[in-house]
Structures are given as structure tokens and as C-alpha cells.
């Protein structure tokens, strides 16, 4: 249950991604700057957190063991997925990007056969290939029904080009995020805590973040102080708080694919929190009709996930070797 609640909390902070992205796009900030800001500003915050906890040395040891994995999977689940979201936000409204992002609910479940979990029996401990948990898959499909309902009301107001430019990059990002996160969990195998892992992945994303910053500078110049403050808030809410909370939740559930899928499904809350954020900060209108029905379906699905997986004794799950 704790993992589910943390997942919902992370979705609330992750909704800042779509709200602040929209604000930054309106102010003329390049999508490349937006993507790089999330990691360049988050990096020193994460560094001082890990330094304060006196955990830098173990992270350094792990990164030296397998630097290519940290750069590769760190980039995939870091600036790689986020640059696609930032790019999509240029062409499509926040509701479409946030709604399409919910495909990550299914992506995490569909990726399950690519990973192994540890099972402990009376006679042995063995690693077996994961299977798609049917119960979580059905709940995910139910939640996606709500997402579709929320988008149908607005779908007629955008062009095919806007739809494809805002849809395809987000679909790719929806698979990159859980894939990179799970691969990093396999690499560290429980030897690092969430703070260390998030910092390591931010460091791994650094080369591409710098490249994106250079591209943003050549296309739109140096951001204004206001745009940089927006970038800092984006990094704090989405890059630090949301990421650490979500990764901590997935760490709790990593040896139970049903619970892990349920945690990843909590990101559907991002759609709801984005709508609420637009109402509060951007003078958006309250959803009505199908949009309201869709929001209710999403909330019911998230509650169902919590109930179906609350009996999982996370503390007794054996850590992956």
C-alpha cells in the first residue's frame, strides 16, 4: 500500500512537467532548454542530498564498475525520455501530452517478460522470467479507458500533424522511462538507495543534457532569468521530488511484477493533477461530460489498484541478487 501511495504522490509532482512545459513554451523557451534544465538544475540538488547522507563513495564505486550502463540507461530513463516529452509539448496541448503519457501504464506491464524476478521456495532461490500480470493489465486497460474519455472531448480541435507530433514521441518516451528504470534496478541490484540511483542516472544523462543545452542556445539564445526560474521549479518538482518518490516506490515493488505494474499505473494520476493544475495556475476550465467521466474512471482505477495490491507483503519480498 505504501508503494501505491508514493506512486500517486509522485504523479502529483510529475504533473508539473506538463504545466511548466506549457508555460515555458508560451514564453518562447526552446524544448531543448526545457529538457536539459530538468537535469542540469536537478544535479546539484541531488549531489548535496547524497553528500549530506555520506553516500557518494558507494555510488562512485558502482558507476566505475559499469559506466556504460549508467550513461546508457541513465540517459534512456533520464533526459532521453524527457526530451521527447518536451519536444511533443511544442506541437500539442498539455492535455494531449499528459494523456498520451498514460501509455506508460501499459508499457511497464508489456515490458515485464524482458526482466527477471527472484522467487524463494522452501528448497531454493531461483530467478525466473517475469510474466504480464493479468489482474494489473485489466486495471491498466480500465484506467486507459478513462484517459481516452478525457481526450475525446478535445480531440476534434487539433490537426493530424499536431496529433502525430504530440503522440509518437510520447509513446516512445512511455516505454523508455520504465525500461531504463528497471534496467538500472537490475544493474545496482539493491546495493544503492534511491537517492544514489537518481543522482547516478542524472550524471549519466549529463552528456546529452549538455548537448541539448548547446542546441537550445544556438536556436533561441540564453534563457531569461524568468525562464531559468521556471526551469529550476521544473527540476525541483519533476526531476527531484517526483523522480525520487517514484523510484523509491518501484524499489519497494521491484520483486513483485503485479505490484510494480500497479505502482507504474499510478502515473495515470498525472492526467488528473495536470487538469487540476491548469485550472489553478492557467485559468483552465473544469472538465465536463466525457472529460469528467474519464477523470472519475481514472480515480476509480487507481483506487482499485491500491485495493488489489494492498495485501502484498513488500517487506518480505526477497531482493534481487
UniProtKB/TrEMBL annotation:
Q: Does the keyword Transmembrane helix apply?
A: yes
InterPro entries attached here? Answer: EmrE
Q: Which Pfam families match?
A: EmrE
Q: Where are the transmembrane segments?
A: 31-52, 68-89, 95-117, 137-153, 159-177, 198-217, 229-250, 257-282, 288-308
Going by the UniProt record, its keywords in alphabetical order are:
Membrane, Transmembrane, Transmembrane helix
Query: What name appears for this protein in its UniProt entry?
Result: Multidrug resistance efflux transporter family protein
